[in-house]
Write a structure and sequence with these properties.
Helices cover 43% and strands 12% of the residues. The protein is of the alpha+beta class. The N and C termini lie far apart (43 Å).
């Protein structure tokens, strides 16, 4: 079984993981805030699990005291 870090997800799966709408995932891709893997053409993209984790780390802020 492949490691989760190497797993490629569809936009719908990535949205489910992050708790976002698919349109938000596509916007983040368009603005280059979320890297993607182009599988066969510009419309067929996948997202690495590790890139989703990195996005979470970049967007996480400490709680206010």
């Amino acid at each position: 079984m492949p490691d989760l870090i190497d797993q490629l997800l569809t936009a719908e799966e990535a949205a489910r993981v992050l708790g976002l709408k698919t349109s938000t995932i596509r916007r983040l891709t368009y603005t280059h805030e979320l890297p993607c893997v182009k599988v066969t053409n510009r419309r067929c993209v996948r997202y690495r699990w590790s890139d989703l984790e990195q996005l979470i780390k970049l967007r996480t802020r400490p709680a206010r005291a």
